[in-house]
Design a protein that fits this description.
By secondary structure, this protein is an all-alpha fold. The protein has one domain (2-175). The chain is built from six helices and no strands.
Amino acid sequence: MENDFGAVVASWEEFYETIAGASGTLLGLLFVSLAINPKMMTNAGPNARRVWSEQTFHSFLVLLVIAIVALIPDQTPEGLGIPLLILGAQGLFKAVRDVRVALQDPDPHWRKGEAFGRFVSPVLGYALCLFSAILAFRGDPDAMGWLVAVNFLLMMSALISCWDLLKSIGEQSDQDMQQG
């Protein structure tokens, strides 16, 4: 059964090579863009924007880790299930914590419903990651199909947030230039 499971996981190799390349590249680009405005990442910066940056970075990192795990040769149900369980549980915990931090931001813009929409996709993605972990532990090849949804939810959320972060950095630079 484990050999069959490993063969199913191996059949997804090209997909996860693509995910690893895309998420690794986007993770690096996000790192560089945040380095342009490092005060956004300090504790003195806006809570919600910092959380937003962390969430985006975390989503790209999780996508990269899932891809790396999926690319391990001769994968076993436990070899896939354990990392997915850890990533899903940690991701859900982080998302709940991030919502609490965003709620404490004094800027009312971050407390609007649209701001919380940013957390829906990652929470759903991490919940599906846990579901995929359960399927993987059972040796069910459908785990790989459900991971496509996880990849989609985390990638789309991270891409949208990344774009909005870049706009925010640009707007902040415009404000700084007008004041200076």
